[in-house]
Amino acid sequence: PVIAAGFDASSGFVAFAKNWKASSAAFLVSDWLAGLVRLAQESQQAAARLLLGLSMLAFVAIICRHQAPDHAATLKRMFLIAATLYLMSPSQTPWYFLWIAPFLCFFPVRGLLLAGVTLPLHYMYFHLALQDQEALYRYGVVWVIWLPVWTMLLFDALCASPAARKADEVT
């Protein structure tokens, strides 16, 4: 049905790819990096999305560089790819988190578990938008949501034991 509907200017997929951005610290960083090149605003947003997309593809390539040895490793890869897609998305709303929440029962990644705690702060957007304070949300609340999550993900990645890193390389 999506393909039959087409990918013209009225397509939801096209609108998402070109315009949507919500609650994503990764997009804010990507947009800032793209802004260093001094592009026009529309080109800067496209460059920021391209940077996120290329980052996602790089992580997926790393995740899939070897054949999975068993079904558990395949499931873990599916989780890591879904998590990467979510974390690199320019729009990170709580309902999109449902893509990865079921996997957390099998792979309790602390940073992503923490996201389950901080993501409800997304709903502050609606109150702040009514108060004409969207900037406070975008440059304040978004960081309250994501800075602890990204910090925990980075901490766990850096502090993983050599044996855990080796096991992750196999899966």
Can you walk through the features of this model?
The two termini are 34 Å apart. By secondary structure, this protein is an all-alpha fold. It contains nine helices and no strands. The longest helix is centred in the last third of the chain and has 26 residues, at 134-159. The protein has helices spanning 2-5, 12-18, 25-35, 41-63, 71-87, 110-118, 124-130, 134-159, 162-170. The relative contact order is 0.12.
Task: Give the gist of this structure.
The chain is mostly helical and about 170 residues long.
Key words describing this protein structure:
globular, mainly alpha, 66% helix
Shape: globular
Helix content: 55-70%
Compute the number of strand runs. Answer: 0
Number of helices: 9
Could you report the average pLDDT, rounded to the nearest whole number?
87
Which stretches are low in confidence, meaning pLDDT under 50 for 5 or more residues running? none
Distance between the termini: 34 Å
Radius of gyration: 18 Å
Strand and helix order: HHHHHHHHH
Strand fraction? under 5%
Reported for the largest beta sheet, the result is: none
Protein structure class: mainly alpha
